[in-house]
Design brief:
The complex is a heterodimer of chains A (about 180) and B (about 550). Chain A has about 180 residues and is of the alpha/beta class. Chain A has two domains: about 30 residues; about 130 residues, Glutaredoxin (3-Layer(aba) Sandwich), CATH 3.40.30.10. Chain A contains five helices and seven strands, in the order αβββαβαβαββα. In chain A, helix 2 packs across helix 5. Chain B folds into four domains: about 110 residues; about 110 residues, Kinase associated domain 1, KA1 (TATA-Binding Protein), CATH 3.30.310.80; about 120 residues, no CATH class; about 110 residues, no CATH class. In chain B, the strands form six sheets. Chain B has a six-stranded antiparallel β-sheet. In chain B, strands 6, 11, 12, 13 and 21 form a five-stranded antiparallel β-sheet that branches. In chain B, strands 14-15-18-19-20 form a five-stranded antiparallel β-sheet, with no helix packed on it. Chain B contains twelve helices and 24 strands. With about 550 residues, chain B is of the alpha+beta class. In chain B, a hairpin with a 4-residue loop joins strand 12 and strand 13. Classes of the chains: A alpha/beta (about 180), B alpha+beta (about 550). Chains A and B meet through helix 1, strand 1, helix 3 and helix 4 of A and helix 2, helix 5, strand 7 and strand 15 of B.
C-alpha cells in the first residue's frame, strides 16, 4: 500500500510539472508588452522646450493627464485647445497635463505651441523610446490617465470631446 | 495488488509475461504460444490495474503508444495545414485589424481562404491548441519512455544466467539435442563466445553470452534529446532568453533598440557598394555587362549607446559603447545580442537648398539650406537679407479646414512658408513654397527658388538574441546519439545450457539483425558441438530442418 502511494505521488508530481510547462508555453511570449489599465505607469525623463528635465515621478501625489501627439495628426489638433483650456483650472486641483510629442523637430513643436498657446509642459521624445518602447503608443492621439499613486486609470486612443476631457481630468483628481 | 509468484520463487509485478528471473512464461497466452514476445523482456510495462485514480488514468493514457502515435500524426497533419497558405506573420497587412486579415485571405484564396482564417490556421504555430498538442507530445514521450525504460532496466539487470527450459523453448532461435560430450561442448562454446567479444556468464551448467546491451537504451536517449529540445523551445518564452525584432533607422537618427531595453543605436551612415568592372572582371564581368551593377556590400555604420545605470527611458544620459560597420553576415554583437543588416531604403529627403532670387534682375542674393528633420527658424543671408521659416509641412497634403496640412512627419512632400526679409522689404514678403509650386498673397519682388536636395537612407536591421541555441544544439546531439546507439548496436543474447543426460539446449535472441546473430552462432558451432537450431520465423529454414530430420 505504501508503494502505491509513493507511485501515485511520483506520477502526480510528474504530471503536475508537465502541465505547468504547457501552461507556461501558453501564457508566455506575449509579442509586445502592452500597458493596460491598472498597470503602474513607467517612469521616464524627457526635456521640455526650455531644456528642463521632467520626470513623471516629479508629479507623484498628483493626477497626470499624459497626452501623446504629433503636429501632423488632425485629431490631436482638434483636442489640444480643449486640453489647454481646462489644464489651468485642473492644475490647482492637483491634475497636471504632460504632453509628449513623438520625435518631431523643435521647430514644428515650437510653432505648434505658439499657434495653440500651450502653457503646460511639452516634451519631445526624440528617440521615441518613451512612446514606442515604454508606453507602446500606436495610434495618435493616445491619452493615459494616471492617478496620484502612479497607476493607469484609463487609456484613450482616440480624439476626445471637451466634455470627455473634463470628466477624465476629474476622474484622476486626488481628493 | 497481486504479485505473481513464479515457480522459481521470484515475485513479479502484476502484468509480467515472463518471469523476471528465470524466464518462465507466466500468462496463459505465453504458456500456450510457441514463441514469446520479447519486447521489454516480457516485463510489466504498464500497470493496468492501477486505473483507480484519475492520475493513474491520465498516466496510462499518455503511456499508450497508440495515443503517442496519434499525437504525432495530429502534429504532422496540423503542421502541414499551416503551410498551405501564408501564416499571419507573412501577410502584408499593417496594424492588427482582424477584418483586414480576413479580407486578405478571402481575396487571394476564396472561400477556402476564409475558412482557413476562421479556423485559426492563419496563425497556427502560435495558437493555443497547437501548443497544447506539442505539450501533449512531450508528455507522451516522457511518460511512455519512463513506463518502459524502468521495467526494461530492472529485468535486464535481474536476468538470471540459467533460464527455465520453457523460456528457452519459446525463443525464436532454439535447438535441443543430445551431444557426445556435453562438458567439452560447453567449455568450447564458452571460449568461442568470449573470442567473439561476448560478455559471458556461467552458472550451474548454463551460459549467458550477451553483447551490446547498451544499444537497448538508444530510443530512450533519443527521447531525452527530444525533451531537451522541447525544453529549449519552451525557454524562449522566458524574458531575456529569446529576441527576434526588426527596426528601421534613418541616417542621423538615434533609436532605442527594440528587444534590448537600455541600448540605443545611432545610424551614422548607410552605404551600398558595387563591384567595379576592373576589380572583379573575372568573376562578375559578364554579369555586370548583362545586369549593370552588382552589389558587393550593404553597410550600416552605427554607434551603440547604453543608458547609464538607473537612468530613465527618454533620458539623454547615455554612454557611448562602440562604433561598428554592420555588413551582411557581420552583425554588431553586444551583450548576447546580434544586430544584422537586413534591408534598406534610399531617397528620403534630408535637406533642401534654395536660392533667393530677385525676380526683376533674376540675380541670386544668397542661398540657404533647410534641414528637413530639424529645421532652423532663421537663415541669415548677409547684407540685411534673411529668411524666416514661418511654417513647415513635411508631407504636404493640400489645404484642410482652411489650413495647409501635413499627413505625416516624414518629408515626402515638403512645403514651407517663408518670410523673406530684404533691404527693400525689412518686414518681409511672405511666400508659400511647395515642390513645383509657389503661392504669394500679393506679387513679391523676391522668390525662393529650389536649387538642390540631399537625400538620406534608412537601414533595416534585425535584432536577434537566442540563449536557447546551445540547448537546442545539445538536444539535437543527444537525439542523434540515441539514433546511432539504437541503430548500430544490436543487443544479442545467446543461452546455452546442459539439460538432463547428454542433452544440450541452445537459444538466442536479438532486438534486430538476426542474420548476424545466426552467423555468430555458426561460428560458435564450428568449434563446439552444439544442437542444430531453428529460426522459427525463417520459413525456408524451418522446412529445411524438418526435411533433414525425417531423412
Amino acid at each position: 500500500m505504501d508503494k502505491k502511494k509513493k507511485r501515485l505521488f511520483i506520477r502526480g508530481a510528474i504530471l503536475l510539472v508537465l502541465a505547468a510547462a504547457i501552461i507556461f508555453a501558453l501564457t508566455s511570449k506575449k509579442e509586445t508588452k502592452v500597458l493596460a489599465v491598472g498597470d503602474k505607469a513607467p517612469n521616464f525623463e524627457l526635456q521640455d522646450m526650455n531644456g528642463k528635465k521632467v520626470k513623471l515621478s516629479d508629479y507623484e501625489g498628483q493626477g497626470v493627464f499624459l497626452n501623446f501627439w504629433g503636429t501632423w495628426c488632425p485629431p490631436c489638433k482638434k483636442e489640444m485647445p480643449y486640453i489647454e483650456k481646462h489644464s489651468k483650472e485642473f492644475t490647482n486641483k492637483g491634475v497636471q497635463v504632460l504632453s509628449v510629442n513623438i520625435g518631431e523637430s523643435e521647430f514644428k513643436v515650437n510653432t505648434f505651441i505658439d499657434q495653440y498657446g500651450l502653457t503646460f509642459p511639452v516634451l519631445i521624445d526624440k528617440n521615441k523610446s518613451v512612446s514606442r518602447n515604454s508606453y507602446n503608443v500606436v495610434p495618435l492621439p493616445t491619452t493615459m490617465l494616471i492617478d496620484k499613486n502612479g497607476v493607469i486609470k484609463q487609456i484613450v486612443t482616440r480624439e476626445m470631446s471637451e466634455a470627455e476631457i473634463v470628466s477624465l481630468m476629474e476622474s484622476i483628481q486626488p481628493e | 495488488m497481486s504479485k505473481i509468484k513464479c515457480q522459481c520463487g521470484h515475485e513479479n509485478p502484476f502484468g509480467t509475461v515472463l518471469c523476471e528471473k528465470c524466464g518462465r512464461p507466466l500468462t496463459d497466452e505465453a504458456q500456450k504460444s510457441e514463441m514469446v514476445d520479447m519486447r521489454y523482456e516480457g516485463s510489466a510495462r504498464r500497470s493496468q490495474t492501477y486505473k483507480k485514480s484519475v492520475i493513474d488514468k491520465i498516466w496510462n493514457f499518455f503511456s499508450s503508444v497508440k495515443i503517442g502515435v496519434s499525437i504525432i500524426i495530429a502534429v504532422l497533419a496540423t503542421s502541414a495545414i499551416g503551410t498551405i497558405f501564408p501564416q499571419k506573420f507573412y501577410v502584408p497587412v499593417s496594424g492588427n485589424d482582424p477584418s483586414e486579415y480576413l479580407e486578405y485571405y478571402e481575396r487571394l484564396y476564396g472561400t477556402v481562404g476564409k475558412l482557413y482564417y476562421q479556423l485559426g490556421f492563419y496563425d497556427m504555430y502560435n495558437s493555443w491548441w497547437f501548443k497544447v498538442l506539442i505539450g501533449m507530445l512531450g508528455t507522451s514521450i516522457i511518460i511512455a519512455s519512463l513506463d518502459r525504460v524502468i521495467p526494461l532496466y530492472k529485468s535486464l539487470t535481474k536476468q538470471r544466467t540459467k533460464r527455465h527450459p520453457s523460456f528457452m523453448k519459446r525463443q525464436r532461435i532454439y535447438g535441443a539435442s543430445n551431444v557426445s560430450d556435453p562438458d567439452e561442448s560447453f567449455n568450447n562454446a564458452e571460449k568461442a563466445l568470449k573470442d567473439l567479444h561476448y560478455k559471458v556468464k556461467v552458472e550451474d551448467g548454463a551460459i549467458l553470452a550477451e553483447k551490446n546491451r547498451f544499444g537497448r537504451w538508444g530510443p530512450y536517449v533519443n527521447h531525452t534529446g527530444l525533451i531537451i529540445f522541447l525544453l529549449g523551445v519552451l525557454m524562449r518564452g522566458i524574458p531575456g532568453f529569446y529576441v527576434d525584432e526588426t527596426m528601421w533607422i534613418r541616417e542621423g537618427e538615434t533609436r532605442e533598440i527594440p528587444g534590448a531595453p537600455g541600448y540605443l543605436l545611432e545610424n551614422v551612415d548607410f552605404s551600398v557598394e558595387t563591384y567595379s568592372k576592373g576589380e572583379a572582371d573575372e568573376v562578375f564581368g559578364e554579369a555586370i555587362d548583362n545586369n549593370g551593377a552588382i552589389v558587393s556590400e550593404f553597410k550600416s555604420d552605427v554607434k551603440l549607446y547604453k543608458e547609464k545605470e538607473g537612468s530613465l527611458p527618454g533620458s539623454s544620459d547615455v554612454e557611448f559603447m562602440k562604433e561598428y560597420p554592420i555588413i551582411v553576415n557581420k552583425p554588431l554583437k553586444f551583450d548576447g545580442y546580434s544586430i544584422f543588416q537586413m534591408d534598406y531604403k534610399t531617397g528620403e529627403l534630408k535637406t533642401m537648398t534654395f536660392s533667393l532670387m530677385n525676380k526683376k534682375t533674376e540675380q541670386s542674393v544668397g542661398e540657404f539650406t533647410i534641414d528637413l528633420n530639424e529645421p532652423a527658424k532663421d537663415y541669415d543671408l548677409g547684407n540685411g537679407t534673411s529668411i524666416e521659416l514661418m511654417e513647415y509641412y513635411a508631407d504636404y497634403d493640400g489645404i484642410v479646414d482652411g489650413q495647409p496640412s501635413s499627413k505625416s512627419p516624414i518629408p515626402n512632400n515638403p512645403a514651407f512658408i517663408f518670410n523673406m526679409k530684404t533691404p527693400e522689404h525689412p518686414d518681409g514678403e511672405k511666400s508659400f513654397v511647395a515642390i513645383r509650386q509657389t503661392l504669394e498673397v500679393e506679387p513679391n519682388d523676391y522668390e525662393a527658388k529650389f536649387l538642390s536636395a540631399e537625400t538620406r537612407d534608412a537601414s533595416g536591421l534585425t535584432i536577434r538574441k537566442d540563449k536557447t541555441l546551445y540547448i537546442l544544439l545539445l538536444g539535437g546531439i543527444v537525439f542523434m546519439i540515441g539514433v546511432i546507439q539504437g541503430s548500430y548496436w544490436q543487443h544479442r543474447r545467446i543461452w546455452i545450457q546442459k539439460g538432463s543426460g547428454s542433452e544440450m539446449l541452445i537459444a538466442a535472441h536479438t532486438n534486430k539483425n538476426w542474420y548476424t546473430l545466426k552467423k555468430d552462432l555458426d561460428k560458435v558451432k564450428e568449434v563446439a558441438t552444439l544442437p542444430t537450431y531453428t529460426d522459427k520465423q525463417d520459413k525456408e529454414a524451418v522446412i529445411d530442418t524438418t526435411e533433414g530430420e525425417t531423412k
